[in-house]
Amino acid sequence: MFCPHDVILGRQQAHGCVDTLHGPREGDMTADAADDAWHALSASLEDSAPLCNGLELFTADRLPDEDRDWCASICGRCPVALACDAYASTAKVTAGFWAGHFYTSKGKT
Ligand code: SF4
After folding, report:
1. Whose alpha carbon is nearest atom 5 of ligand 1?
2. pTM of the model
3. Which one of 7, 57, 80 would you pick to mutate in the ligand 1 pocket, going by the greatest count of ligand atoms within 8 A of its CB?
4. Helices (H) and strands (E) in the chain, counts
5. What is the pLDDT of residue 62?
6. Ligand 1 mean position to 55 CA, how many Å?
7. Is residue 80 lining ligand 1, measured as CB closer than 6 Å?
8. How far does the centroid of ligand 1 lie from the alpha carbon of residue 34, in Å?
9. What average pLDDT values come out for the chain (109 residues) when binned by 10 residues?
10. pLDDT tens figures, 24-35
11. What is the Cα gyration radius of the chain?
12. What is the rounded (10 degree) CA torsion for 109, 61, 105, 49?
């Protein structure tokens, strides 16, 4: 199942900065946890489509408060929200809107 966040993952890989997506370094226990969380999210996406599929706001670089509220309302009904939140939190993602929160290199809001 395609996840719109693949756009972010692909963009960061293309820029050679995927390390900043997975905050911890390879070999770090937290990196292993992030990989486990990614596999859990991927498994969830095989059974259920993410409600943000095709919605560009979820991968926007900037998001006004009203758009964040709208995105959060979508996440509140998403069948993969728990796995999405677990991945974003564990991997310390640095971009995009994940499970009710907007992430940047400074953290989540
Ligand atoms: S919880 Fe939100 S960001 Fe995560 S897959 Fe669902 S709709 Fe997308």
Report:
1. 50
2. 0.81
3. 80
4. 5, 3
5. 92
6. 10
7. yes
8. 17
9. 62 46 56 91 93 93 96 97 95 94 92
10. 455 566 788 999
11. 13
12. 70
